[in-house]
Task: structure prediction
Amino acid sequence: MEVREILEQREIEILSPYAAKAAQSRGRRVPEDECDIRTAYMRDRDRIVHCKAFRRLKDKTQVFLAPQGDHYRNRMTHTLEVSQTARTVARCLRLNEDLVEAIALGHDLGHTPFGHAGEAALNSVCPYGFKHNEQSVRIVDKLEKDGKGLNLTWEVRDGILNHGTADHPSTLEGQVVRLCDKISYIHHDMDDAERAGILCEDDIPLHLRNLLGSTTRIRLNTFIHDIVSASTGKDHIEMSEEIGGAMFELRRFMFQNLYTNPAAKGEEEKAVRMLKELYAYYRSNPDRMAPEYVRMVETENEDIDRAVCDYISGMTDQYSIATFSRIFVPKAWDR
Result:
């Protein structure tokens, strides 16, 4: 018996009856031979970690645009924190940690430069609209590996696509990532806001601090324990009515006092204008894009708007700034 088969059998014997088992996956879009030592979900996790879009996350905004400090989160650190939190919950509930990790590591691959501001910018100019979760799936299905995609399993793709607040992942593992995404950014965005001096603990309503805890660390611990307690033995993932309601109230507080706070978001208007200008430029000059995107338009009959959106959304913060400067900022005469 191969190592993979032993691991698959162990999942069936040990994991919850509600967990997704690799041996029972709905499979890949293009059938492949199985690995002899890794399950399907382990392979998906590895493919995501080694792809280019994952590496670019380290230079993409989480909340603070180009923060001047070593300890502010970026999209990569957010992704890793979601993964770690989700794995903790999955282990406690006897769910499939490999599937949880793959979904968590891939859930934000499609984020634009400058976070949700960049997402809003592309959504406003692209005739197809733009949602980062849908772009994440497009990346793993088509854009990676020179147009071949990563060919991930159905369960991982479903979890990536449906990690938004209003979405409904098909697996419990996807549901875990969906909740842990929320509690992770509530935790670390508040931590970053305190570090920046924009918010302090006393700004949080007292009844929320009394219920959830008076520090970011304690609140994260409260959320994790509540998910585990409320979901144990159930065929779905949930929070208790009291803690879950408080979490969404805290999330509303963050939107009102941080995510729209001019002190944290003051530069975003410039970023939005810049991305719109880049979009218009490449829409008129598609041959100036990177070769793989030119090929998409010229030989693969991809719509120009879609290809331009793919190209710009894949840029990091600094690369988009440098590209804008190269195209639009006059250079000094040096002869």
Q: What stands out?
A: The chain has a mean pLDDT of 94. The two ends are 71 Å apart (CA to CA). The longest helix spans residues 172-196. The chain has two domains: 3-265, 268-328.
